[in-house]
Amino acid sequence: MQDLTIAPGQGIPDGLVVAAADLSERFAKASGPGGQGVNTTDSKVQLSIDIAECASLSDTQRRRALHNLEHRLDGTVLTVSASTQRWQIRNRAEARERMATLLREAPAPPPPPRRKTKPTRGSVRRRLEAKKRRSELKSTRRKPRR
Length: 146
Description:
Number of domains: 1
Radius of gyration: 26 Å
Largest sheet: 4 strands, antiparallel
Family: Belongs to the prokaryotic/mitochondrial release factor family.
Helix content: 25-40%
Region (Disordered): 102-146
Number of helices: 3
Strand content: 15-25%
CATH class: Alpha Beta
Domain Prokaryotic-type class I peptide chain release factors: 18-141
GO biological process, one term: rescue of stalled ribosome
Order of helices and strands: EEEEHEEHH
Protein name: Peptide chain release factor I
């Protein structure tokens, strides 16, 4: 297995190379297309990385990745599966792409806090005028009073 190269992103300004020793691959029988070979070949790929033990990430990147990916983690292990292709080699490439995408986006810093603003006088006036017009339009649909 080769090292996983991750392009520069918001939390990784210089990019990143995850050593092959930090990654683990497992293969299984995939469902779906494949004809007669679907029941005999292990084409599904599961690529895993233990984020807490990954030497390629700095402490800050590791902490942010663990926080941002907590809904996808099993403990501290991130697992990506790929089984859409008929060939194991293509599923391996797809799993590596998915893992790289997740690891590129995970250590991004949180967005800046929102500045509270209030609506402008003009927007408030326009909203109220639109409500008044709508009310008048709906009032013309009512049955006339006796």
